[in-house]
Automatic annotation (TrEMBL):
Residues 111-150 form the DUF2059 domain. Residues 175-195 are annotated as: Disordered. Pfam families: DUF2059. The keyword Signal applies. Transmembrane segments: none annotated. Residues 183-195 have a biased composition (Low complexity). This is DUF2059 domain-containing protein. The keyword Signal applies. Coiled coil: none annotated. Keywords: Signal.
Amino acid sequence: MPSLRLLAAPLLALAALSVSLSATAQSKKELVQKLLQLQQPGIESIARTVAQRPAIALMQDAAQVLQTQVPADKRQEVAKTIEGDLKKYADDVVPTVQKRAVALAPVKLGPVLEEKFTEDELKQVIAWLESPVSKKYQQVVPELESTLAQALVDDTRSSVEPKLKQLQQTIRKRLGLPPLPAAPAGSAPVSLPKK
């Protein structure tokens, strides 16, 4: 029969390994928590987009109806009222959806981050997100996106506008609306409703 002394060493080693694994798991959970906290503005932005998407679709539908079914002398007044309704909706719904997104992130994203990243990788991501270079990059991103978007619109306008005009006419025809008159050469391009 083995002595207690012989069993004690493996049991102590097993206990130390268990504590070490527990500390690593806790440390990894803490790193994931910190990463999610650093990403909170992005999570809130996703939530804002999700909350506003249905309102944007309604606004686009309303803009079409305004142009085709509301008398010209009433359009501005009705449009202003609808904009107020959309703002009220956003002011009410966006904070609620953002709050839920921040609450859901640890539950839904935390396990994925824990599974896909090692503790060392999480530390590297956090170090990057906290670095001055990352912060500077994040400040420049909107300008980069805007520059590319404008260049893309300018570069593809001549090929996209005729197709967009044709689509607009096709949709009007399917809706039983009269076709729009042909625009004179050099006229303003077709534009989508603004956000």
